[in-house]
Amino acid sequence: MDKIKFTEMPTEHEARLYLTTIGEEEMLPGGSCGPKVRPYYVLHYVTKGCGRFFVNGMAYHLQAGQGFFIAPDYETRYETDGDEPWRYIWVGAAGEEMKHLMHDIGLNQANPIFSCHQGERLIRCLHDMLGHRQLTLTDHYYRMSTLYRFIAILSEERQDHRSIESGNSYAADAMTYVRHHLHEHMSTADIAATMGLNRSYLSSLFRSKTGMTLQKYIQTCRMTRAKYLLESTHLSVASIAESCSYEKGESLSRIFRRMYGIGPADYRKLFLASQQEKRRAAKNKK
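Given the sequence above, the corresponding structure tokens read:
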């Protein structure tokens, strides 16, 4: 059984920066997490063992001393790699300031991997936050100051490696635009025009940085959103199609089936059935 210690923090939707979750885990060989879409930012740091992180159709191999970054609204998955347990810590946070902090240290889903040779300091920060999890004002201030310290350590480590190529920045900006406009019709030409770039240049650059075409990325994001809405709402397939900028439910169904091997309605039935089975299993354990 995986060893895990974590805490979920209460949300503070009006705050510019707030913690959402902090913890540490030892994932046993064969373990995995996801696919999952989160509404907040997460920084994972590997303290022992090896694992793989999947995002945007890319797979990254990680070992102790490395970490991976997850941005809101991206579908990600990670798993152990090898015969040894995989240990990591994580800090999740949200708010407009977190977005700017991550940009400042050069982390985005086009460049989600980082290295840090000051792992012990990061671990101490994590344990300090776990040790001040009470909902008092004093503990709140302590957690927030320690969060800044955690990010400062990463910033210090990356100081000499933070010259972000403009190409990486353009790819990240294109990803952000796509995720914020999934309900609208958009093409590579539209996005390039919005960014003030040549369409061919943006297409070539995006593919070189992410390994997929921008049009494929748009489609992947729409399917990710469709899957999330099928799991979390009672909206009809037609309504979900409209929210993903498809004029007809049939168009969504065709692409969804091609990508996942199952139609959206059948996917929802299977998902709901699996959730009921998990609840029954959890109930029987008590």
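The chain has ten helices and ten strands. Try to locate this feature in the token string yourself.
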